[in-house]
């Protein structure tokens, strides 16, 4: 019997994750509900550029949508932490679907541009981060089942799912825009979000409990009962120190229970981490928009989705491998290494833009480092903020990414109206390179904080 167990093949960490009851359901439904994040931004650019033949309008409107999303994501995260995922999500999801359908129909009938801008902003204001909700569920479920050591695997897998969404999203958006109708790609993510979100919020067993902050308010020292107790203790024992201890306890209760919740931004390394993700994510929308222009100039619009998906294919592969590794040392160090690799990859893509096959191969190789950056950033946030602020912290990482994505599409759209795709294709490696110094600053700040408290 001992020999049998000794030769037994160890289980894959991914099989262990999905052997936990309820994980398959919330993971799959959360993935489906995330389809808008890979389709709406690009879908707006494809639709608006086709309808109005203007890159600036398309890029700025996509940026307006994403910036509106970024502005409210942390607010929704706080509501989820405070009131629970199901209670908040089921209400917001209904409003979200209505506004997404409203924008799609408005674009379909070609309403005036100012009205469409307003609808894009309103649509963005209803969006929240499904990825943060799923990652919070993983943290809760793994901790509850005694599998906390698999959190790195779970986060890496979620990064892989993000990339799978980004593989199929652009392909589907480009195919629908080119082969069905320029606005059809706005309806598909709306339907996916409605189905996935509805299923996700009906799953009660894996929903994290609401973490309530307990506030203790003591009676005043002038209260008659309190004064009687203190005087009685002092007179019975003859010990004035006893009365003093009681007074100190009351004073402590009066102040400690009313402490204000600490801001996410006050934790060491959080601000540099968010700056990294803002600048880093500018590269992806810059790359998507630039490659869209390149493929359009070559009259290869129908294969645009496949070309864009190569980066996501590599990222998905990188996430699955990263999830099986047990890396030692600071996660900041690995993040910097991956950022450097992505910088080199985007630089080579710019040099080889005349050969789409070579670009596709380099995209896959570059993508191997993308998901590990996102997984490392989420793990840094998880290790930095307390449990009751975890959804908010993870949402801020997502928000930083969406802010960066909006700036990237806006800047690239403006450049494309005044320069060539060759110039705009320089932006991705410049943006990633610019994010590395902030990662170094975050690493230094975090190390200093650890040394001070050790």
Automatic annotation (TrEMBL):
Annotated TM spans: 55-76, 88-109, 115-134, 160-180, 186-203, 264-284, 304-325, 332-351, 357-381, 393-415, 427-446
Localization in the cell: Cell membrane
Topology in the lipid bilayer: Multi-pass membrane protein
SUPFAM superfamilies: MFS general substrate transporter
Record key words, sorted: Membrane, Transmembrane, Transmembrane helix
One Pfam family named in its UniProt record: MFS_1
Entry keyword Transcription: no
UniProt keyword Transmembrane helix present: yes
InterPro entries reported in the protein's UniProt record: MFS, MFS_dom, MFS_trans_sf
Top-rank taxon: Bacteria
Domain Major facilitator superfamily (MFS) profile: 269-454
Protein name: Transport protein
